Amino acid sequence: MTRWRVVAVIAAALTAGAVVLAADPAGSGLYPPCPFLALTGLYCPGCGSLRASRQLLLGNAAGALMLNPLFVLVLPFLAYWALSVAVEGMAGRRLLPRPFLPAASIWALLAVVLVYWGLRNLPLHPFTLLAPEVGMNEQDTIPRSPELMSADDTALLVVDVQEKLLPFIRDRARVVFNIRRLIDGARLLDLPVIGTEQYPRGLGRTVPELAELLGPLPEKLTFSCAACGELFGPLVEKGVTKILVTGIEAHVCVQQTVFDLLGAGWRIYLAVDAVGSRNAWDYRTALARMDSGGAVLTTTEAALFEWCRIAGTEQFKAISRLVREEPPQQES
């Protein structure tokens, strides 16, 4: 086998994995563009390989499996198959047992891959020629990005905003003000709202202005809210896949919750103006770490309008009133 064929076969194996992922068999549409975009310049939508790869590199196989099970199951086979072909090409003889896969299937799959990517990335999309006729507005509408939250797929989580801890939090009035606005907005748009309390015997209950909106909350001793499994089961049943996290402290309970939920396969968003810590350095470091770990940073106002999505409705008018509320004076 010549060297160029070895390279071509390896490329085919890796590309096949990307395209299988791009097909998004579950039809969830939740996955961001795959890392092959950076290598090829071709847009391959619906692929969760980037987040799954990150979880694998972090040693979190369970999280990767939940993010994209097909990727985790196919990757080891493709990697071993490509390695066996590469070793054979360089050594001139077969040194490793090769998984059974007819060569004709590989070349056929490569052809399908090239045709698929080519058609998806032409300036004039050929698939639209086969599409049924639709109105101009519908045809011209670009599908909503899976990176955006919506009222249908998102829940709000309020972490441990309690009476005895809050007085020590920097800019605490802003944190409570923004959490309250997010709760009000979630209620207006019918988003699920959940929350927790950390060791209330020692830290007190949730502050009154939020407690009256949240009602009774589960208690926990672990810093992460992931231990409160009763909160997340109903969200799965409702089709929720994204969670906007708020609360205190950013570098302890919030951060551990964010990473546990990311590892469990949730898409996590963090309202940076609705979380807080006692120290500015802890706050900034926690935001940077969660950002690099896969959480999406956003703000209260951005989240409210993201949930609302469209102007000109009664819900939009109510959300606009929340946005226009005068913020409290900044505290130290």
Describe it.
With 332 residues, the chain is an alpha/beta fold. The protein contains 15 helices and 6 strands. The protein has helices at 3-22, 36-40, 49-57, 61-67, 69-91, 103-121, 136-140, 172-188, 200-203, 208-214, 233-237, 250-263, 280-292, 300-308, 314-324, and strands at 154-159, 193-198, 219-220, 242-248, 267-276, 296-298. Strands 3-2-1-4-5-6 form a 6-stranded parallel β-sheet, sandwiched between helices. β1, α8 and β2 form a beta-alpha-beta unit.
Query: Rough shape?
Result: elongated
> What is the strand tally?
6
**Mean residue pLDDT:** 77
Q: Helix- and strand-based class?
A: alpha/beta
Ends apart, CA distance between termini: 70 Å
Major β-sheet profile: 6 strands, parallel
Residue ranges: pLDDT <50 for 5 or more in a row? 21-47, 120-139
Radius of gyration, in angstroms, nearest whole number:
24 Å
Helix and strand run: HHHHHHHEHEHHEHEHEHEHH
Number of helices: 15
What is the helical fraction, as a range of percent?
40-55%
* Order of neighbouring strands in the sheet with most strands: 3-2-1-4-5-6
Question: What would the keywords be for this entry?
Answer:
332 residues, 6-stranded parallel beta sheet, alpha/beta, single chain
Give a brief outline of the structure.
This protein starts with a helix and ends in an 8-residue tail after the last helix. It is α/β, with parallel strands linked by helices.
Task: Please write out the topology.
Elements: H1 3-22, H2 36-40, H3 49-57, H4 61-67, H5 69-91, H6 103-121, H7 136-140, E1 154-159, H8 172-188, E2 193-198, H9 200-203, H10 208-214, E3 219-220, H11 233-237, E4 242-248, H12 250-263, E5 267-276, H13 280-292, E6 296-298, H14 300-308, H15 314-324
Helix pairs in contact: 1-5, 1-6, 3-4, 4-5, 8-10, 8-14, 8-15, 12-13, 14-15
